[in-house]
Amino acid sequence: MEKRDRLIVNYLAKGFKILEISDLMKKNDSVKISESMIEKRLRIIRKQYNATTLFQLGALLKENNII
Known about the structure:
The protein is mainly alpha-helical and 67 residues long. It has helices at residues 3-13, 18-28, 35-48, 54-63.
């Protein structure tokens, strides 16, 4: 998983919304990413882990010690 993707799922796990994640990544991590790009990356990650919801994705990533 790319650094950018790992940052996205970590922020999601902490309870941030997509709009907040975009702002936090720009501010804290010097990664410029739009809301639509975050949504696209999450769709791709969900496909990789065969998760239908973000909650299920979070559970799978936690189970696999990714977050």
